[in-house]
Design a protein that fits this description.
GO terms for molecular function: ribosomal large subunit binding. Belongs to the RRF family. The structure is a single chain. With about 190 residues, the protein is of the alpha+beta class. The chain has two domains: about 100 residues, Topoisomerase I, Chain A, domain 4; about 70 residues, Gyrase A, domain 2 (2-Layer Sandwich). The chain is about 55% helix and about 15% strand. The protein contains four helices and six strands. It has a four-stranded antiparallel β-sheet, with helices on one face. The protein is elongated and about 70 Å long. The termini are far apart.
């Protein structure tokens, strides 16, 4: 029975990648000085009696580095989309031209850039904590295996494998954070 004990590294790796994917999504929603279609993804619009993501009521484009446009499909929804953007907390003042809503992205000042780098660091720390929690789950599996008769050599092997996976994932988080902070601070 002791030989049958295995730790599911694939599951641990999948969960760590999930934390990384979540971090990338959070980073994408951070407003840098550059326009991005993902900036408006979290914005919900009341459409046809229910809350709907903006990308389901119109086409989101980035025609210029500092401009996001939303081509609303239903003319009657333009006002609601504009209102949702104003109330979203993005700090962007929409301009309407027929069914097209233009979102000019203002230049960020130095103070705001520093605040955003701190927010990015918080997001990265949340991802690190999630990865460490996955590591802890893996180590708990190893402890259960030890209690069920796992040989000490196997235990050391799995502990090393889980730790290497954790180190690699946290390294990826750190790289993503450095890249995002550089992007935010870029004038």
């Amino acid at each position: 029975m002791a030989e049958d004990i295995e730790i599911d590294l694939d599951d641990l790796e999948r969960r760590m990648k999930g934390a990384m994917d979540s971090l990338r999504a959070e980073f994408a929603s951070l407003r840098t000085g550059r326009a991005s279609a993902s900036m408006v993804e979290p914005v919900q619009v009341e459409a046809y009696g229910q809350m709907t993501p903006i990308n389901q009521v119109g086409t989101v484009n980035v025609p210029e580095p500092r401009m996001v446009t939303i081509n609303v499909w239903d003319k009657g929804m333009v006002g609601k989309v504009e209102k949702a953007i104003r109330e979203s907390g993005l700090g962007i003042n929409p301009q309407t031209n027929g069914t097209i809503i233009m979102l000019p992205i203002p230049e960020l000042n130095e103070e705001r850039r520093r605040e955003l780098t701190k927010v990015a660091a918080q997001y990265a720390e949340h991802a690190r904590v999630a990865i460490r929690n996955v590591r802890r789950d893996g180590m708990d599996q190893i402890k259960k295996g030890k209690a069920n008769g796992m040989p000490e050599d196997d235990q050391k092997f799995w502990e090393t494998a889980v730790q290497e996976l954790t180190d690699k994932s946290i390294g990826n988080v750190d790289q993503a954070l450095e890249a995002k902070q550089a992007e935010i601070m870029q004038v």
